[in-house]
Amino acid sequence: MSTLFGDELFERPRREVAPGAHWVPGWLTLRQQSWITARFREWAAGPVPIRGAVVNGHEMSVKTVCLGWHWRPYAYSREAVDVNGNRVLDFPDWMVRLGRRALAEVGEGAGVAAGEIYHPDTALVNYYDHDARMGMHQDKDESSLAPVVSLSIGDTCRFRFGNTENRGRPYEDIDLASGDLFVFGGPSRLAYHGIPKIYPGTAPDGCGLERGRINITMRVTGLPG
Ligand SMILES: O=C(O)CCC(=O)C(=O)O
Ligand SMILES: [Fe+2]
């Protein structure tokens, strides 16, 4: 069982993994994590229940529920046309504020200039059970190149962060733990990335999630309205 105390933050210092890609371990407190986990349970229940998106006829092992705009491969819409047709929940104001705080934390390197205001309007909220994986991909269904803000809660995962050219090397594997912030923007906004592995049983006590991993990625769709 890992904890967020002791030497952990010294062993996992914050750093810029690639130009515009910033990793801030232990950014969320356990209290914030367990509060967000409680919200996750509400979102997962509907109006659009959490589901594995179908990509090329295969259901993803990662289950996703969306806020603001509904994502399906490879488009955003207000209604979950591939699930039950219901409109997705609004993007919460507190999450806009959290996204802005995340960018303030990493500075201008992530691709938001001084004076510009970050306005995320969608979040993909993913749940990974122990066997779930996400293959290498680019986040490119958004027409805006504003940064992606990623938060992790629960079990640690291996996060593979690659280059903007292809799915292969060079890439770096890092372990994203409960409470970690990762922001990718600027020259890294279209970097390939994926989740090859979840480490079962590594969620810290108090994060609110006993099993698996929650990941939230906030984005700017660039869509009107
Ligand atoms: O789970 C993660 O950390 C990454 C999720 C992701 O890449 C995505 O939802 O596009
Ligand atoms: Fe992604």
From TrEMBL:
It comes from the Bacteria. Pfam families: 2OG-FeII_Oxy_2. GO terms for molecular function: broad specificity oxidative DNA demethylase activity. It is an enzyme of class 1 (oxidoreductase). SUPFAM superfamilies: Clavaminate synthase-like. The keyword Iron-sulfur does not apply. Its EC number is 1.14.11.33. Its cofactor is Fe(2+). Residues 119-222 form the Fe2OG dioxygenase domain. Keywords: Dioxygenase, Iron, Metal-binding, Oxidoreductase. This is Alkylated DNA repair protein (DNA oxidative demethylase). The lineage of its organism: Bacteria, Bacillati, Actinomycetota, Actinomycetes, Kineosporiales.
